[in-house]
Amino acid sequence: MNILQKHKNRLCVQAEAAEPHQSSSDQSGLIQQVRSRMASLLRPLRIFFPARCCVPTRFYSGFVSRMRFLNSLKECDEACVAALQNAHIFLFHRLVPLLQQTGRGNLSPVFLTYSDVQSVLQKLGSDESLLKESILVGCSDQNQAQFCLDVGELDQAAVAEEFKGCFMDLRKAFFLLNGSGAPLVAKAQALLRWHQINRFCGATGQPTQRNQAGSQRVCSSSSIIYYPKMSPVVIVLVSDGKRCLLGRQSSFPRGMYSALAGFCDMGETLEEALCREVAEEVGVELQSISYSSSQHWPFPHSSFMLGCHATVSPAHTQLNVDLSELEDARWFTVEEISSGLQVKTTPRRGDPPSFWLPPKHTLANRLITEWRDRQRNSKDSMG
Ligand SMILES: NC(=O)C1=CN([C@@H]2O[C@H](COP(=O)(O)OP(=O)(O)OC[C@H]3O[C@@H](n4cnc5c(N)ncnc54)[C@H](O)[C@@H]3O)[C@@H](O)[C@H]2O)C=CC1
Ligand SMILES: [Mg+2]
């Protein structure tokens, strides 16, 4: 147990002991004491609680504390300004992220301090008030708030040089980003884009104002509150018990097949959307559906992908592909899938056409790998 945890636990016991037994004035005195001791303990960790904002008086696991901390920043602009001054900030230039190579050969965002960004803004002749445009993205395991900022008004090459990084289109960089970097950068880009296209109220045409965290925008004239939007998308790996069904759109890279996917229609359930998409795209009827997992997907914009496995009856596997949606759809054996999963790099122009699958970081890859593993396990258990 680290020293901070020990202090937190002690404070927790004190605060909890106070709550049920002491008079409200005793309690508020103790809460004040806890507040100032917490502030001094958290200062080295660069977490600040402004006096006016609500300070939690019970302390929970690291995860719960982080979630409550983030939530408090969304609710209190002052707390958010204070957190920004001690945060990790990563940059975009017109939605293109600033990245750097990591020791392990992949990419990560360039994390900067407030003063790093402040001094470069000054050097490049920009108003440092631009920093207030930063948007809260998350909180690291080390309790460091993470913000992103689009510096699209500055010279891109000059910013890249100052921070020893490189601005790289997210479509190219996504699969090279490290495991925690990919979802963080995707989320940040999605939030920045959402703010860029929601500057005006759809009802009144008046400008909308964001809160400091960037978790909402409000039109003061209509009082409409706008929240960041995602489009729900279903993705499904269909199996007939022995083979799985994959399709490809003409826009996919050559040789790549993926699980069937589609945007949900308004009012549909997850199950209805899955059955409709599969019926529309390949003309088969699903028998059973089981949920696997989900993913935020940044392309083309913000999608919330819900991943499932589904079965069809082995007697009804005849495909009738809608060629306006898919270039091809086929059943693949477990051996074909295993070899497709071995292909680790995108085939280059001129390479012979070979079958390959969406890379890791994709929900399609997760569903296909889960299916392959289940098939292997069931073969093993049958001897
Ligand atoms: N992360 C992953 O593993 C995978 C992600 N995907 C993503 O799933 C998404 C949906 O797959 P598709 O087969 O293209 O969908 P789809 O089969 O629904 O067809 C796309 C068409 O749906 C319409 N549409 C309806 N609502 C839309 C909305 N909110 N946004 C955009 N278009 C909408 C448009 O006409 C569009 O051309 C794609 O964006 C793709 O990038 C697809 C496969 C794997
Ligand atoms: Mg589709």
What is the topology?
Elements: H1 3-21, H2 24-42, H3 62-75, H4 77-84, E1 88-93, E2 96-101, E3 107-109, H5 114-123, E4 135-139, E5 145-150, H6 156-162, E6 166-167, H7 170-173, H8 181-196, E7 209-210, E8 217-218, E9 225-226, E10 231-239, E11 244-248, E12 260-263, H9 270-282, E13 288-297, E14 303-311, E15 328-332, H10 334-342, H11 363-381
1,4-dihydronicotinamide adenine dinucleotide binds at residues 231, 233, 235, 258, 261-263, 295, 297, 299-300, 303, 305, 325, 358, 362-364.
Molecular structure report:
The chain has 383 residues and is α+β, with helices and mostly antiparallel strands. It folds into three domains: 3-24 and 37-84, no CATH class; 88-196, Nucleoside Triphosphate Pyrophosphohydrolase (Alpha-Beta Complex); 231-381, Nucleoside Triphosphate Pyrophosphohydrolase (Alpha-Beta Complex), CATH 3.90.79.10. Helix content is 36%, strand content 20%. It has helices at 3-21, 24-42, 62-75, 77-84, 114-123, 156-162, 170-173, 181-196, 270-282, 334-342, 363-381; strands at residues 88-93, 96-101, 107-109, 135-139, 145-150, 166-167, 209-210, 217-218, 225-226, 231-239, 244-248, 260-263, 288-297, 303-311, 328-332. The strands form three sheets. Strands 1, 2, 3, 4, 5 and 6 form a six-stranded mixed sheet that branches. Strands 10, 11, 12, 13, 14 and 15 form a six-stranded mixed sheet that branches. Strands 7-8-9 form a three-stranded antiparallel sheet, with no helix packed on it. A hairpin with a 2-residue loop joins strand 1 and strand 2 (96-101). Helix 10 crosses helix 11 (363-381). It is globular. The chain starts with a helix and ends with a helix. Bound molecules: 1,4-dihydronicotinamide adenine dinucleotide (NAI) and magnesium ion.
